[in-house]
Amino acid sequence: MIRACLAALAFAFALSQPAQAWVSGWSSFGEPNCTGKFSDKECLTKPARWVRSGDGAVHLRIKEFRGLPKSKVEAIFKSQGVDWSVFERDTYWRDGNDKENKDKARLARYTLRGLYTADGKTELMPPQFLAIYPFSDKVALVKIVDGNFRIATIGKNPVLSDIPFRWASFTTNFGGLQATPMTIQFEAPGSGDTRSHHLMAPDGTILTTIDNVLVPIKRDTTQPELRDPAYYGFDSGLIGFPIRTAAGTEASVFVDSRTGAIDRIDDPLTFLRVNNGMTEQYICGQSRGKPEWGGPKSYWAAMVKVGMLPESTGLPDRNIYMPLDDRGRPLAQTTGNLFVGMARISAEDSEIVAETRGWLFVYSEKGKLTYSVAGAATDDVVSSARYQMMPENVAQMAPRLQRVADVWFGRPDQDILETVIGEPVYHTYAMEMAVRLFSDPAKGAEGGMTNWTHVPVCEPVSLTSKFLDLTSLLASTETGANPLAVVSVAAGQKKARFLATLKYWAEADERAAAKEHAYLQTTINEANADMAAGKNVRGDHGFFHAARATGGRMLDYYWRDNQRLPLIEDASDICSRFGSNSAECRLVWPWAQGIYNQEEAARQAEAERYAAKQAADRADYQRAISKPAYVSSKPKEIQYCWRESGFWNC
């Protein structure tokens, strides 16, 4: 066993690819969790994992069983040395008040798991456990029926043994690829704010122990579950642990998850929460639902701090980070070319709770920092990437981004907003961005720079080389010498345009109402003239429009010639306007009620006709199946089945 006096975890489940976790501890019957043919008693789970086998790996799956016979379940309890009362204790909540059939009801839902080949055809381990986590194809960590964990040999008759060391929790790593099969590591007690981590060998013994692993930082006291990962799994199979060295400094140790060999000790890792999507809507904070509610998912990214931004940039997190490749080293495409690192753009003021919603690329050009902004990936090289915002994917955008001379982020000034809008402001505005462009992009910093130019945080894609038009950008946005004033005026103008739009539509509604009133008055005047002339108004919809609004003599006049309304719904409208006890309602409602009664009678007649047809069909069916021709024994291929349209061969 290799032992490194270094570092690792304190809270589980923190890999770069969450889908690599081995789903084994919960019942998943039915779609979308089962693969192939399944029933309510047997399920081959979809997640298949590569598991160590000698120098290679094999593809395995968990198969779940429930509704096993009581005698078989009792035998499993006995073989594991667990009293049957544990079954009654652990399944009590399932049977409710069903005392008579309590064992049957409990067993119908009681799930046990076995280990199978990925195709589900070959049983490697019988269904005797609540959960199975293979160290290899020879040994597994299992959860026995009393909820405790044991080490078990894989075979038809597993041999159980105790875990021979103290531990607090364990995690599973990798397994999604054949090159990086699944491994298991245990967290063990340490001292102070550090813990030890045991990486396990294929035979279930300790392969390597990493000491002095830092306990994850709990950044947000309002969300206890939101804490930094304890380690990071890179796609190469290396695991990086933040540690405290003997000298008291912080560093990272990189361990090969398959061999347990220490790859190297390197700079301290920093973990950042990164959103998956790079859509404009999410960067603007307009789609912040939790993943289970349909919002974009977020992931942890491992980076290394390499410097600090000037305070003048205004970003909440001024740290500059270096993106890492699949071995935890600086990305090849980001080295050289004046590249310094990446800073994260967040829509929140607090770096404690903020998630990364965009990236600021930082360059050093003749002693001066210059920048480019990576935000929405619309029509860009990584727009279809699965993990768009992960730094290693975003770094591919660097060659397509337009370099800018300076950047500033901040919220608009309330006094300026109120001056521009012309009314008080009662809420906090979102973060805005201003940039200074190079006057001559070909000369860079030597060619001078423009005034500050407002660029909406929602549309940083406009700063890619594909979209940037210096002249049109300067002409279409607010510019000036003070970035705070620039973004405040721009935000105020946007709000003022919005308020002007609301005012326009409110005034448009008023104009429409006035126009409707004028039209109605004209119609009423024409209707009065028709009444004075004794004109027949049969089918005159204009006259009805006036009569419906005024009621009284005009509605009586319309009814005299029509004895009905254009629509049955008009009767409800008239009764609503004038009251259910009004003369107008008493005039038209009997007609409407008669229509309703006719429709109801037609519906009732149709229901009776359908019921009679069903009864006749059932009688025909009973007569048909009582004939010897249909009840005698016949080959399966000529048996008959009843359908509503007749008899058909089954």
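The record above closes out task 2.4. Task 2.5 opens with a second protein, given below.
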Amino acid sequence: MVPNYPLLFFGEKLNYDPTEGVINVDGFVRVRSSRHVAQLVQNLRNELDQLLEYKISHPGITRWDRNSKEGMLLHTIVDLISSERGTSQDSCYYDSDDQDDDGC
């Protein structure tokens, strides 16, 4: 199983469904989330996408210094991914075919 944060940061498309309280990843993976957390993840994801687009068109040294915007963003995402415990199965990860209540 893949943990949630890598899916959220590197999956193709994210959409938040406020009625169900889930982030849909690529239209088939769903991760439970509050609206606030979903917005934070989406903002970080947008910043990461912009940075990657810039790096592709302007190759060069990556600034990992936490005092730079680039470094702060990269460290934040690495810290989030590294801090996630267990697999997505342990944290209410399910796909659209999963209709049973798994206690989450």
